[in-house]
């Protein structure tokens, strides 16, 4: 427990930035009109593609014995991939609504 408290005290500024960015992200996404959803989804897919590549690079450079970093990197790759695929599926379904029916 003491190790965790020391880590938190050492990285408190980073924790503040993460918490504030979560609140900012929720506030920004909550105010997006539905008309802009599809273009923003495409942008989010591009960003998550960068996250996936970054996670793969980090996993390649981490020491083989650092299991926590490997697990977090693997989760980042899996969740980023799910988000990209889900985003493309949702975008495709939304664009289908604008096509003329035969």
UniProtKB/TrEMBL annotation:
- Keyword vocabulary terms for this entry: Cell inner membrane, Cell membrane, Membrane, NAD, NADP, Translocase, Transmembrane, Transmembrane helix
Any one Gene Ontology biological process term? Answer: NADPH regeneration
List the GO cellular component terms: plasma membrane
Identify this protein by name. Answer: proton-translocating NAD(P)(+) transhydrogenase
Task: Please give the function described in this protein's UniProt entry.
Answer: The transhydrogenation between NADH and NADP is coupled to respiration and ATP hydrolysis and functions as a proton pump across the membrane.
Reaction catalyzed:
NAD(+) + NADPH + H(+)(in) = NADH + NADP(+) + H(+)(out)
- Membrane-spanning regions, if any? 14-32, 44-62, 68-91
Q: What is its EC number?
A: 7.1.1.1
Subcellular location(s) per record? Cell inner membrane
How does the protein associate with the membrane? Multi-pass membrane protein
GO molecular function: any one? NADP binding
- Where does the NAD(P) transhydrogenase alpha subunit C-terminal domain start and stop, copy by copy? 14-100
State the top-level EC class: translocase
């Amino acid at each position: 427990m003491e190790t965790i408290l020391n880590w938190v005290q050492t990285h408190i500024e980073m924790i503040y930035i993460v918490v504030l960015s979560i609140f900012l992200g929720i506030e920004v996404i909550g105010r997006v009109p539905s008309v802009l959803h599809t273009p923003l989804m495409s942008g989010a897919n591009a960003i998550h593609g960068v996250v996936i590549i970054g996670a793969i690079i980090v996993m390649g450079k981490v020491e083989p014995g650092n299991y926590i970093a490997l697990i977090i990197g693997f989760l980042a790759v899996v969740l980023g991939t799910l988000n990209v695929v889900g985003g493309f599926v949702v975008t495709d379904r939304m664009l289908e609504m604008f096509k003329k029916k035969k």
